[in-house]
Amino acid sequence: MYLRDVHAEKSIPVLRQLIRDNPLGILTTAIRSKIAPFILSSHIPFIIDVKDEGSEKELGVLRGHIARQNPQSKVLIEAAQANQASTLEEEVLVLFTLPSQHYVTPKFYTETKPSTGKVVPTWNYAAVQAYGRAKIFWDHKSDESISFLSKQIYDLSEHAETSVMGYTGTAGKQESWKVSDAPERFIELLRTNIIGIEIEVDRLEGKFKMSQEMSVNDRQGVIEGFANLGTETGNVLSTLVKERSDLKES
Question: Record's superkingdom (predicted)?
């Protein structure tokens, strides 16, 4: 990830929260194999575990699962078996992106465009990249894999039902769906068709590219330009640009 100082987000808690709020990550691996391409990626929802939420330095552990029939799963299992260890030697990458992103027209730059015309289009977005080594839970008969996958399925469902859907069962909200609502045998069968992935994060990088590189007047133009689009995404971007502009000024 190209990180200019003006766009770099150096707060680890902020990066962890972006992951928690946007759990669908892109798992990317680069592993030599005769059965699949060298570089593979899959969209996988993740849980991030943090022992101390108040910590400014703890990077956390990512937990996810992937279909056993996915070619990337087969490569991961092959690598784990070849190493005779469940933790892979190769580094993996997971990319998380804020859903709200948008093209930025030069027309938004109310100071620079009229005065010099030296402006070009760009794109505003926010993203986090997590790097680490992955432990693979592929033996569906082992107690360790059963325990990991059972916890993973429960925790991910609970997080999505309550945090994503808002089904908390309080203040008129619906009750969340529970794994226990499905037949136990059905869940057991599904569990045999997935593998677990646990990534001890050793590097966490993130950026909020929200027009911080522009002058304060141009930033105000971007804020107003997005707001005037009259769209949900435009309103979100307008708020984000203002937040990042205020941070820069402070």
Answer: Eukaryota
